[in-house]
Design goal:
3 domains, three-stranded antiparallel β-sheet, about 10% strand, 9 strands, single chain, DNA polymerase, domain 1, about 425 residues, Double Stranded RNA Binding Domain, hpI Integrase, Chain A, alpha+beta, globular
Length: about 425
Amino acid sequence: MAEIEKPKKKEIHKEKAIKKLLKAGKRGIYYVASNIYLKITSPNVGVWFLRFQFQRKRYERKWAVYGENNPYFKNYEAAISKSVKVQKALADGKNPLMQEHSEIETLDDLIVRFLSTTTRKYKKQKEIYKADIQPILGNKLLGEITRYDMEKLLISLVKQDRKSIARKTLYFFHSVFRYASDHKLILENVTSHLTIEKNAGGDPQERQIFLSESEIEKTFDVLNQYPKQAPLSNKIAMVLYLIFGFRKSELISSKWKDFNFEKQEWIVRPTKLGEEVITLDVPDDVMPYFCALKALNVNDSEFMFPTKRDSQSGHLSESTLNTMLSKFFSKYSTKTVKFDNPLGSAGVRKFWIHDLRRTFTSTANDNEIAEEVTQRCLNHKKRKRLKIYDLSNRRTQRKVAYELMAGIVLPLANLDSEVKFITMEAKAA
């Protein structure tokens, strides 16, 4: 009589194997422990799944996103711990999913659970939650949070003239409470009645401000008079925005490892999903500005624009430059310096750092740089049809655009003597 073949045991993937598979981005669903699987979709991106049978019904649920050293994500050790909890619940005749829900009581608990189940980073939203929402509502029980609480929170942000923060907050909480409602964690979605138009300051108005060459010159004339309030590194950042058309985050998060002094090449990594890594050819006249930045980097930070204080990111905050500009459009007083709206008095319209990106585009187009070239400089997404047929990143044409902008901006900024002094001082040291 032939022997009956025993069913093959599932291959158990240990931590070392899991990390190797994640690094390689080997797509598939991998068995890790009883009732726990990891689905890998791309390099370093994985999602934990629960699979179990309860009362003759099979369940499969996404549990968390894989991650290390992040309170919102779950690593291998957490997955093993979860496996033990699921097995215990099943042994006690309980549905593990109901046990999960009983652990979520406060808004903090809900936020942690929601963020652990999504691959989106929600970086800005986490900062907003920590600074403006957690101190007020974080420890509040979900059943105690009312529609009025949410309305009051948004009204407060709008009254502080932080409409963009109010909009981000509302979009975020729509997602959070929709998740809670779908998973029966709440009886009522307290954000369902809230809209951008009525509760979060309305749709953002398109800004039309871009600086004329005269305004650029006047801006730097004023900033150069106040070196303590407008440090050289901040002014160099503004010059680079005008020459290259960066996003704020792309410039301030740039690292020295991506800059090649010999080849005069700069690799810029996008901070928005779907954008491309692009290589810039730095004009000769702009190179001294990078030498000055290197000289100012006394602590050998990996970032071109390091923060002066301890921070999680390690680089200059996106708000720092706008905060500096706001001083020069208002009344400012210290023991040694006093001024009252010097930029406005000089005839410069109120602008923010993002407006320099618009200034770059408008100035380049006015000087006969083709629109498709400026769009590549801005690293905007290509239109669907272009993405299929036009694979060029316009590197040669972008180089011409950068040289043109350097020829316009550098004389207006008038930073050459300050840049040379810092560089020579560093060499002497």
